Structures are given as structure tokens and as C-alpha cells.
Amino acid sequence: MPRMKAVQISKAGGDFELVERDIPEPGPGQVHIKVEACGICHSDFLVKEGVWPGIEYPRVPGHEVAGRVDAVGAGVTEWTPGQRVGVGWHGGHCFKCEPCRRGHFVLCQFQKITAISFDGGYAEYMVARSEAVAAMPDDLPAAEAAPLMCAGITVFNALRHSGARAGDTVAVQGIGGLGHLGIQYARQMGFHTLAIGRGQDKAPLARKLGAHEFIDTAAGSVGPNLQKLGGARMILATAPDAKSISALVGGLATDGKLVVVGAPGEPLTVNALDLISGRRSIQGWPSGTAKDSEDTLRFSVQSGVRPMIEKFPLAKAAEAYDQMISGRARFRAVLTMAG
Which of 139, 182, 250, 315 stands 20 to 30 A from 1 (CA)? Predict the structure, then answer.
């Protein structure tokens, strides 16, 4: 039986273990992928620490996967060996539940989640359900494509479904793994883009990424400062801090929307009068389906949006994860399988 290298977690709260495993075979409706790169996402914490209920161990983390089709299982006709593909958070859907019947596959009541429902991309090979596989443009390097399969699709999808139109003021809170992509997408979508961060030292990077203006949270309350600029039609909250996100509501324009993609561990605290008086709203947004990933990748190629990455070999997965979880990574850590 052919073998592969993989990094697994053997129990909740356990260490990363570099092991040799049998290379998995694709079953009916599955695609066998030779992994070229896998991004490290903050959500990998759910696997590492066993926060998500029902995870079966040992489990291989990783849901920002870029690679090539190696083989396909019975019944798969839409993918062929050699195709460049990616796999993100959404690992498959049932096609039969109420959300699926309405086309809301990412809200499937029985959805599979990559690296939680099945082994992910911290490995040289993996298998995924065919409906969870996204085609990847040839001119997008695997290491740059990988973070777009979760971080990229999440902010891209939230922005394009927010109701904001080109020319509207859109603010992005946080200049990290999600935020540095959100600023780029917002600028390329034609929004008047504001970046919100703590400390003037972040201003040059924010402007380099495409922000028209930078708002320093250390220099005063965010809401009034946003209102001085006319208020935001939409604010994308990417930094998972409940207090900081709650403070953003006062910066929304009339009919403005706060869209949360960075999930804090604590509840938000919002004055209902701020919502009522300006017809403002708060919305959450999940990542998206494989088709959404394809849209994200295509738009990124067309517009020049790219993640800022640090590469690590598979054997240094623990070091890469530590860079990410500590906030030292600038801005996405990516495992590469070459060599």
C-alpha cells in the first residue's frame, strides 16, 4: 500500500504529529487530490483543541487546500486527473434538506466540513466530495491560492452580498489574515474603502493594500470618526473582538449593515436604539460553496488581489500554527508539500 506523510492531531488538545499513513483511495462521488499547499486558518484551532463537537480523532487538519486531481471515484465525471483544484471549509452537502432545495448549500443541515468531518490538507494527499471541489486558475500559484479557499472566499462573499454598490463607503475592521484581503477586495470592487485598525503604524500598510483612508481606534471612538466621514454603508468585521465589533454599529450610515465574519468568543453588546434610529442591521456571513471559491479565485486573478503569506514545509506545521495562533504571521501561514 502506497504511503504518504501527514500531520495529525491524535486527541483534543494534542500536539501536531508528523506521521506516515496509507494514501487514501477515493470512494464513489469522491475526488483524490495531490495536495500542493494548505493554508493554516484560525479555525484549525477547532480541530487542535477539540472545540467543535463530534470530531473523531486522529484527524488531519487543514481546510485551505490547493492541489491537483490525482484520481476520481466511481460516478465522478466533472473532474479529471491533472486538473488544478482547491477545497475549502465547505466539504459537501446533502442536496435534499430545505436549505439545499432552495440552493443554499452552504447552510445544508447535514453539511460536511473539511478537516472536521473528514481529514484535511495537512497531508500529501486527501479525498473530498466532488461537489466540494473548486477549479483553480492555472496562473495562480498554489501557495497563494490556498488561503483564498477560506479567508479569501469568506470576505469576498460577504462583501459582494452585502448590498453595497460601487462608490459606497465600506469599512474593514482589522488588518490581519482576513482584513488584509478584505481591504483589497473592497477597493477592487469599487468601494470607497476605509481601514480600521489600532495604531498609526498600520496606516501605511492599509493604504498600500488599497484603503483610501485609515481610522486609528487608539485615537478615539470609531463610531463618531466614521460618522465624520459620512458613515459606512457596510462595515466588515474581521477581527474577533466582541467589544471592538460592538463599537462599530455607531459608525454605520442610514440603512448601513455590519457584517461579521470574525467570530468572537463573547457576545456582542449593542444599543438597540442605534439600530432602530438608523434602520441599521447586523448580519453574519459564512464562507461559501465550491462555486463561490471559483468566483473568488477568478476575481483575485483578474484584479490582482493576493494574500501576504509565509511558507513552511509540512514538517514544520507546528511552528506554522504557532505563528498563526500567536498573531505573528504576516498574514497567512501556508504549508507547502514540494520536496
Answer: 315
What fold, for 153-284?
Rossmann fold (3.40.50)
Helix (H) or strand (E) holding 66: strand 64-72
> What does the DSSP 8-state code read for residue 201?
G
- Give the Cα separation of 88 and 43 in Å (integer): 12
Reported CATH class of domain 3-150+288-336: alpha beta
Q: Which residue has the cell 453588546?
A: 269
Cα gap 149→337, rounded to integer Å: 17
Q: Would you state the pLDDT for residue 17?
A: 98
**CA–CA distance, 114 with 306 (Å, rounded to integer):** 23
Indicate the SS3 state at residue 316: helix
pLDDT of the residue at 1: 72
Q: Domain ranges for the chain, please list them.
A: 3-150+288-336, 153-284
Task: Look up residue 322 and give its three cell numbers.
Answer: 504557532
Residue range 88-92: mean pLDDT, rounded: 98
**Fold matches, 3-150+288-336 and 153-284:** no
pLDDT 10s digits, 247-290: 999 999 999 999 999 999 899 999 999 999 999 999 999 999 99
Could you count the other beta carbons within 10 Å of the beta carbon of residue 248?
A: 25
The reported pTM is 0.96
